[in-house]
Design brief:
The complex is a heterodimer of chains A (482) and B (168). Chain A is α+β, with helices and mostly antiparallel strands. In chain A, 48% of the residues lie in helices and 16% in strands. Chain A is built from 11 helices and 12 strands. Chain A has helices at residues 2-33, 37-55, 57-78, 80-101, 103-137, 148-154, 159-167, 199-216, 256-277, 288-298, 312-346; strands at 170-179, 185-190, 226-229, 232-238, 242-250, 407-411, 415-418, 427-431, 436-443, 446-453, 456-463, 467-469. Chain A has a 5-stranded antiparallel β-sheet with strand order 2-1-5-4-3. Chain A has a 5-stranded antiparallel β-sheet with strand order 11-10-9-6-12, with no helix packed on it. In chain A, a hairpin with a 2-residue loop joins strand 9 (436-443) and strand 10. The model of chain A is unreliable at 351-404 (pLDDT under 50). By secondary structure, chain B is of the alpha/beta class. Chain B is 29% helix and 29% strand. Chain B contains 5 helices and 6 strands. Chain B has helices at 19-28, 90-94, 96-106, 128-136, 154-167, and strands at residues 3-13, 41-50, 53-62, 80-86, 111-117, 143-145. A 6-stranded mixed β-sheet of chain B has the order 2-3-1-4-5-6, with helices on both faces. In chain B, helix 4 links the parallel strand 5 (111-117) and strand 6 (143-145). The radius of gyration of chain B is 15 Å and the shape is globular. In chain B, 45% of the residues are buried. The chains are: A alpha+beta (482), B alpha/beta (168). Chains A and B meet through helix 8 of A and strand 1, strand 2 and strand 3 of B.
C-alpha cells in the first residue's frame, strides 16, 4: 500500500509539473508570441481540465486503478520473492486485524481448509481406534454374531467398547465386482441407486493400482486390501477370478470384511468358470447384479419406522389377554388368602399327643395313677431339639378340684417349660420326664407348673398334654389371662 | 436388440511416439502438443457404434518404453492392442517386435494393429522403397499411418482394431 501511495504521489507530481509547464507555455505565448485568442482559449480550457482532473482525487483513483492492478500483477509475477518479503510482515498483522474486526468472515474463509484437516484427523483417530479393537478380536474365528459379545469379553474387550465400535458411523457407498486380470466391471451397486457413469473406469483404475502395487512391492501371494481416499475407504476382497471392492465411509462394522469374503467365495464356488472366461459380453455372465444388490442392502442404513396402529384382531387379543391376566391375579390372591388363613389349621405345630386317661381317684397327695394306653417314646435326655411323638391326640380334661391353689402332677415326658403359655415364648428350661410338678395355674391348653431343681424351685408354662394330673384341675387355678 | 460389449485395449510403444496423443484425439477429439510423460497407466473410455450395438473400449494407455514383462499385469485380459511407433524415429520401429512378443507372452490370441504415428511430419512423397521398409516393421499385421495432430486415420485405427477383435 505504501508503494501504491508513493506511485500515486508520483503521478500527482507529474501532473502538477505538466500543469506548470503548460502554464509557463501559456505565459510565454501571451508575452512573446502573441498567440491568437482561440489558441489561448483552448490552452486555458486544457489547463482547467487538467486542474480539475488533478484535484478530483476519487476520479484520479478510478482512472489509476487498472494501472495499479496491472502494476501489482506485474510485480508479483516478476519478483515473487521480493513481494513475499515485502508483504510477509504486513500479512501477519493484516490477518490479526481481520480476525479482530471480522472474525466470522475469517472463520468462513478458513473453514474449507481447517474443517478438512480436522475431519481428516478425526477420521484417522476413529480408524486407529477400530484397529486397536480389531487387533484384540482378530486372534480367533467368530462363528456367529451372537457370540461376538462373549468372545469380545474373553479377549478383554468390554461390552461398552464393542457397543461403541458398533456405534461408529458407517456407510456403504458402492460395491464393485471386477474381473481379476482385465479389470472389466462385472457388476456394480450404488447405495444411492444411481449408476455411476465411470464405474467401469473406476474398476479399471482399481485394478491398475492393485497390479502396480503387487508388481512393484508385493509378493505373489499378497494383495492390496485397502485404499484410503480422504474420508472414503476402498476395501478389497480377492478371489481367483474376480474381486469385490467396497467403497465405504466411516469404520466398517464387525464382520463386514468376513461378509465380503463369503460373498466372493460363494461367487467362485458357483460361477468361477464364467467369471474367468468373461470377455466383455454381459450375456455370458450369470446374474450377479441381484446378488450384489442383496449384499449392499444388508448394510443399508435402516430408517426408524413409525409404530403402526393395532388392527381390530390385535386389539381383541390384547383385551382378552389383559382380562385373563387380571383373572389369574384374582385367583392367585384368593388362593393366597385362604392358604394364609388355613395354614394354622392344616399345619399345626408339632405336638405330642399322648392319650391320657385321668382316673379321678381319691386324692392321694404325692402319688398318682395313670393308665395311659401308650407309653410315650422319648429319650430321657432333655435337649432343645427333642420332639416327642406320642401317637394320639391328648384328651386331657380339667375337672374341677377341691384344691383351690395347687395341684400335684407329674411330667408326662421331657418337655420345655416356657415363660408364657405360647409356643413362641422363650424357653425356661426342659423338664425331665416323671418330674413331680405342682400346678399353679391353667390357661387354655397350658398349665403353669412349679418343680424343684438343685438351684431351687422353678416356674414355667407347659402344654397341658405333657402333664399327668393326680386330680382334676380346680377351677380356681384356671385363669382368664396367663 | 442393442447389444453392449466391453473390451480392454491397450497402447504400447516407445517413449514419445504419441500414444497419449492418439488416445486424446480418439477420446476427446483434440490434440495438445505439450509433451507429458505418462506415469504408470491412464485409463480412458470411448464407446463405438457397431452394427450389433455398442462397443465400449476401455483404453489402457501404458507408459512408454516400459519393460512390460515386469508389469505384465497391465496386459492381462487385453482384447486388442495398438502398437505405436514414431515414423520420424527409426529406433521406435525396431521396438515393435519386442512389444508384440511381450504382449503375446501374456495373451497369445490378442490381436494387434500397428500404427506409424506422426505421419504429418513426414514428407508426403515417401519413396516407395522407404514405404516398403516401413511396412516391413509392421510384422505383416494390419497397420495404418496416423497423425494425432491432424487426426488422420486415428478414428480408422481404433475402428480397425474393433473389427480385428470382432473377427478374432
Amino acid at each position: 500500500m505504501r508503494e501504491l501511495e508513493l506511485e500515486l504521489e508520483a503521478l500527482q507530481r507529474q501532473a502538477e509539473a505538466r500543469l506548470a509547464n503548460l502554464q509557463a507555455e501559456l505565459d510565454r505565448a501571451r508575452v512573446a508570441d502573441g498567440l491568437a485568442a482561440e489558441r489561448l482559449e483552448a490552452l486555458q480550457t486544457e489547463v482547467d481540465e487538467l486542474r480539475r482532473v488533478v484535484n478530483d482525487y476519487e476520479g484520479l483513483i478510478q482512472k489509476l486503478r487498472p494501472a495499479i492492478s496491472e502494476l501489482l500483477a506485474h510485480a508479483i509475477h516478476n519478483s515473487r520473492d521480493e513481494m513475499a518479503e515485502a508483504l510477509g510482515p504486513v500479512m501477519g498483522e493484516a490477518i490479526r486485524v481481520q480476525i479482530r474486526d471480522s472474525r466470522q468472515d475469517m472463520v468462513e474463509a478458513l473453514y474449507p481448509i481447517i474443517g478438512e484437516t480436522v475431519q481428516k484427523a478425526i477420521g484417522e483417530f476413529t480408524r486407529e481406534f477400530q484397529r486397536n479393537i480389531d487387533a484384540r478380536l482378530k486372534s480367533a474365528f467368530r462363528p456367529a454374531n451372537a457370540l461376538d459379545a462373549v468372545e469380545a469379553r474373553l479377549h478383554g474387550v468390554s461390552t461398552a467398547e464393542l457397543t461403541l465400535r458398533d456405534a461408529i458411523p458407517f456407510t456403504l457407498n458402492e460395491l464393485f465386482v471386477i474381473q481379476h486380470g482385465s479389470g472389466l466391471l462385472l457388476a456394480h451397486y450404488s447405495q444411492s441407486g444411481q449408476s455411476a457413469s465411470d464405474s467401469d473406469l473406476i474398476s479399471g483404475m482399481l485394478t491398475a493400482i492393485r497390479d502396480f502395487v503387487r508388481d512393484s512391492f508385493g509378493k505373489e501371494q499378497t494383495e492390496l486390501e485397502e485404499v484410503d481416499y480422504g474420508e472414503q475407504n476402498i476395501l478389497l476382497e480377492h478371489g481367483r477370478a474376480a474381486y469385490v471392492a467396497a467403497v465405504i465411509t466411516g469404520v466398517e462394522p464387525l464382520g463386514f470384511r468376513a461378509r465380503l469374503r463369503r460373498f466372493i467365495s460363494d461367487l467362485h464356488v458357483k460361477h468361477e468358470a464364467q467369471l474367468r472366461a468373461y470377455n466383455g459380453d454381459p450375456a455370458s455372465l450369470p446374474a450377479l447384479q441381484p446378488k450384489l444388490v442383496r449384499l449392499g442392502e444388508e448394510f443399508a442404513p435402516s430408517a426408524p419406522s413409525a409404530p403402526k396402529p393395532l388392527s381390530r384382531a390385535q386389539r381383541n387379543v390384547l383385551v382378552v389377554g389383559m382380562a385373563g391376566l387380571l383373572l389369574c391375579m384374582g385367583l392367585t390372591l384368593f388362593y393366597g388368602y385362604f392358604t394364609f388363613k388355613l395354614w394354622p389349621v392344616a399345619f399345626q405345630p408339632p405336638s405330642a399327643t399322648p392319650t391320657i386317661t385321668l382316673t379321678p381317684t381319691h386324692p392321694q397327695p404325692l402319688s398318682f395313677t395313670s393308665t395311659a394306653t401308650h407309653t410315650p417314646t422319648s429319650t430321657a435326655t432333655p435337649t432343645a431339639t427333642f420332639t416327642p411323638t406320642p401317637p394320639n391326640t391328648p384328651t386331657a380334661s380339667l375337672p374341677p378340684s377341691h384344691t383351690p391353689t395347687s395341684l400335684a402332677a407329674v411330667a408326662f415326658g421331657n418337655v420345655w417349660a416356657r415363660e408364657a403359655p405360647d409356643f413362641e415364648a422363650p424357653q425356661v428350661v426342659a423338664i425331665a420326664i416323671d418330674t413331680p410338678l405342682t400346678v399353679r395355674a391353667a390357661f387354655g391348653e397350658w398349665v403353669q407348673v412349679e418343680w424343684q431343681t438343685p438351684e431351687g424351685a422353678r416356674l414355667g408354662w407347659v402344654p397341658v398334654r405333657w402333664v399327668t394330673f393326680q386330680a382334676p384341675v380346680p377351677p380356681a387355678l384356671i385363669t382368664p389371662t396367663p | 436388440m442393442s447389444h453392449t460389449l466391453q473390451k480392454k485395449i491397450c497402447l504400447l510403444g516407445d517413449f514419445a511416439v504419441g500414444k497419449t496423443s492418439l488416445v486424446r484425439r480418439f477420446v476427446e477429439g483434440r490434440f495438445d502438443d505439450r509433451y507429458l510423460s505418462t506415469i504408470g497407466v491412464k485409463i480412458s473410455r470411448r464407446a463405438l457404434t457397431r452394427p450389433y450395438g455398442t462397443l465400449n473400449f476401455l483404453v489402457w494407455d501404458l507408459a512408454g518404453g516400459e519393460n512390460y514383462e515386469s508389469h505384465s499385469s497391465y496386459l492381462a485380459g487385453v482384447a486388442g492392442a495398438l502398437i505405436v511407433c514414431d515414423l520420424t524415429r527409426r529406433v521406435t520401429m525396431a521396438a515393435l517386435q519386442r512389444y508384440t512378443s511381450q504382449l503375446r507372452a501374456v495373451n497369445p490370441k490378442t490381436v494387434c494393429v500397428y500404427l506409424g504415428n506422426k505421419a504429418d511430419v513426414l514428407d508426403r512423397q515417401i519413396p516407395e522403397a522407404d514405404l516398403q521398409m516401413l511396412c516391413a516393421n509392421f510384422l505383416g499385421g494390419p497397420y495404418l499411418l496416423t497423425s494425432a495432430r491432424t487426426g488422420e486415420n486415428v478414428e480408422a485405427a481404433f475402428t480397425l482394431l474393433a473389427e480385428q477383435i470382432e473377427q478374432a
